[in-house]
Specification:
With 139 residues, the chain is of the alpha+beta class. The chain is 27% helix and 24% strand. It contains 2 helices and 5 strands, in the order αββαβββ. The N and C termini lie far apart (58 Å).
């Protein structure tokens, strides 16, 4: 009879102990990590680029040109802001579509094309369509 009480007590105590450990792991805090350093706000600024590690970089991915684009959004090159046009043309200058199907053009700062609706679609440039994406890479 006492064995049942002992097992029930141990089971209850073990459950409580595990619940404390699981709670710390679930929210990403532990006993050895502070939850705030006092300098940072818990408020989300909405700028994901600020949340990236310092060694993070971007790659502007441009696929080989096509004359029949798919269902993705389409943008005219002329409608892009000047900084985005420069990034796009620099990436195309670095591309050799005769030997590769896609170019990855590295940028250290957040690309201007991210400020447009064209970073996940096709850009019409000189009579052809280029599928364009932006990839955050690194640390």
């Amino acid at each position: 009879m006492k064995r049942r009480q002992l097992l029930a007590g141990c089971g209850c105590g073990l459950s409580l102990a595990l619940a404390g450990c699981v709670d710390d792991a679930a929210d990403g805090t532990g006993d050895d990590e502070p939850t705030s350093n006092g300098d940072e706000s818990d408020e989300d600024t909405g700028d994901d680029a600020d949340d990236l590690e310092p060694d993070t970089y971007y790659e502007l991915q441009i696929d080989a040109p096509t004359t029949s684009p798919g269902e993705l959004d389409r943008c005219r090159f002329e409608a892009l802001p000047e900084a985005a046009q420069t990034e796009f043309e620099n990436a195309l200058d670095a591309a050799d579509f005769d030997t590769e199907e896609r170019v990855l053009y590295r940028l250290e700062d957040s690309p201007a094309i991210l400020e447009t609706d064209c970073h996940g679609g096709y850009i019409e440039y000189q009579g052809a369509y280029y599928e364009t994406n932006v990839i955050a890479a690194g640390g």
